[in-house]
Amino acid sequence: MSTSKANSANTSATASEESNSTSNVNSDNFMTNEVNKGNSEIIDVLVAGAGIGGLITALCLHRAGFTVRVYEQAHILKPIGFAMNLQPYCVKLLYELGLKDELDKIGIRTSTAAYYSRNGQFIYKESRGIDAGYGWPQYSIHHGYLQELLVHHMHDEVGKFSIQLGQKVVAFRMQQNHVEVDFVNPDTDQLTTALAKVLVGADGIKSAVRKILYPTESPPLWNGCSLWRGLTQMDKTFFDGRTMIYLGNPNERFIAFYPIGNNLINWVCVIQTEEPGRRVPPEMPDCDTMVHIQNLLPLISDMKLDFLDVHHLISSSLIVRCYPVTDRDTLVQWTHDRVTLLGDAAHPMYPYGSNGASQAIVDARALTLSFREHGVTPKSLKAYDNLRCEASNSFVLSAREHSSLKILQIIDEHLPSSFWRLSDIISESEIDAELSKHKQACDWNAQQLKQEPPLF
């Protein structure tokens, strides 16, 4: 396991600009930069990044009685992107924030995950969420709709100017009782400075805050796989309308698809396009939807299911994008004095296992608990670091090993063609053992979750 150590001086540096290629679901903006307004007061917490992790963190801290403001690089927030999964261990906190009814309106309560070989032979299925014994459901939900919901709650609860847009972190300086944070408007180059007792970098896998803390760290590293993502409108979904489907081998060719509400099916296809090994990712030009589809379809020509036309589903997509599958090496610590990291800025991980956003929400809970116990101080950030850094690293490493999909890999590598009996390759007890190892590694324990005291 590779690790990095933080830059150890009063930190003031310029970070490289993050680019984020996403796709619009619709053209409605739910926030523009007209709300930007400077403020020189020393607040409790400044959060860099208005993604899911940053917004949940801000809402939690506000509910706990702390003053908080979010600064976001983008000038406009739109309901963009694709789908995500919220695991029960984070949905618990979302329910405590009072979001249950709204989540039910914009997402799907996932009931089952079903696994198939690349040629469509059924392997096994497992229950998810409440059906699996958790006290809370798992949600499949559109990223943009969830972000929009959280922005509305920020405006209603924290205030109209609680999110500042067009503000990219470029430097910060530690003072005795606070941190000074410099921002630049990427379009106008106008500089502004904000003051807070602590800075939380929740600004994604290409985090500017992380770049300042770790100036010699390499860019996000690629594993040789390309990831296609798309959304398709269907008149009718499959099975109970709440089932996730996994097909193929995560080491070579793999497809996942599941409903996310409004008759939308989210699909993800991962193809090993280069030799395995971690390296700097290639430049991937932004092509239109049809170019992406025509590049992908020949690579999955033999992947099929009896109950669903996989190729028609993909070729009928409203939008498609292609990305390199990347993560970063784990860190030995996230916190330096009055600055820390959260979410993908702290622990970016491969999409296998669907834990990225859920882990960011767990970060938000731990940070709030630490502030309650120690106040808004460097000591509280260190306590948060101790709670979360090592624990989240297990998810990063588990995703690299495809642990949640290991059974698909085992079956495909032993007998890539069709087979008659599953038991010739793997027994039910071996399947259960593989699932148990993944859940244990990622600390999925239903009883422990139920006994955890509520944050609010």
Automatic annotation (TrEMBL):
One GO molecular-function entry: monooxygenase activity
Domain FAD-binding: 44-371
Region entry Disordered, spans: 1-31
Comp. bias (Low complexity): 1-27
Pfam families registered for this protein in UniProt: FAD_binding_3
Keyword vocabulary terms for this entry: Monooxygenase, Oxidoreductase
Annotated PANTHER family: 5-METHYLPHENAZINE-1-CARBOXYLATE 1-MONOOXYGENASE, MONOOXYGENASE
Protein name per the record: FAD-binding domain-containing protein
Originating species: Adineta steineri
Lineage: Eukaryota, Metazoa, Spiralia, Gnathifera, Rotifera
